[in-house]
Amino acid sequence: MSEKKHYHRGRRRSSGPAGSRGSSRDSSRERAARQVEKRPEEDWENDWIDLEEDEDLRTPDQVKAKGKRRAGSGGKAAAGKKKGKTPGKSEKKSGGKGRIVSNIILVLAVLVFCVSAFQFFRILSGYHEGRKEYDEVKALAVTEEGEGDGEKARFSVDFDTLKGINPDTVGWIRFDPEPAQISYPLVQTTDNSTYLNKTFSASENTVGAIFVNTYNNPDFNDRNTIIYGHRMNDNSMFHDLAKYEERSFWESNPYFYIYTPDGREITYHIYAAGQVTETSDTYLTEFADDAAYQAFLDYTKQASAYDTGVEVTMADTVVTLSTCTKASDEHRMVVVGVKEKEEK
Question: What's the CATH code of the domain at 283?
Answer without folding.
Answer: 2.40.260.10
